[in-house]
Amino acid sequence: MRSVPEWIAKHDDQKVPDRVRQRVFDREGGICHLTGEKIDPVRDEWDLDHKVALILGGEHRETNLFPAKKEPHRRKTAVEMKVKSKIARTRKKHLGIAKPKSSLSHPRFKRCMDGTVVDRRTGEIIR
After folding, report:
1. Which CATH number covers residue 86?
2. Which entry of 42, 64, 121, 123 is 20 to 30 Å from 85 by CA?
């Protein structure tokens, strides 16, 4: 049983207290959970990473936090943002909120299979 209660944030933007940061580092033995390398707190920059990202439904609590070196953490976050953006775009399209993007937004023009753009009124090739 834990001698100290688990830290749970009141909201997703809440800063993780230093005491919790230290507990998480000690719990994992100072090992980056993304690379498996030992983190040297003096030389290496490191962050706390949510194993299950907040934007993908994870919770902002001590058991979901793990130490990670700064660069691998940034790469992981970028990938998670791409996934979340794709999910949001697909959902908006499904709900009819967002219209599909097209470089030919005007109905006057059409793009042919060979890539040429034709004016529907005149039949003239634009590009």
Report:
1. 1.10.30
2. 64
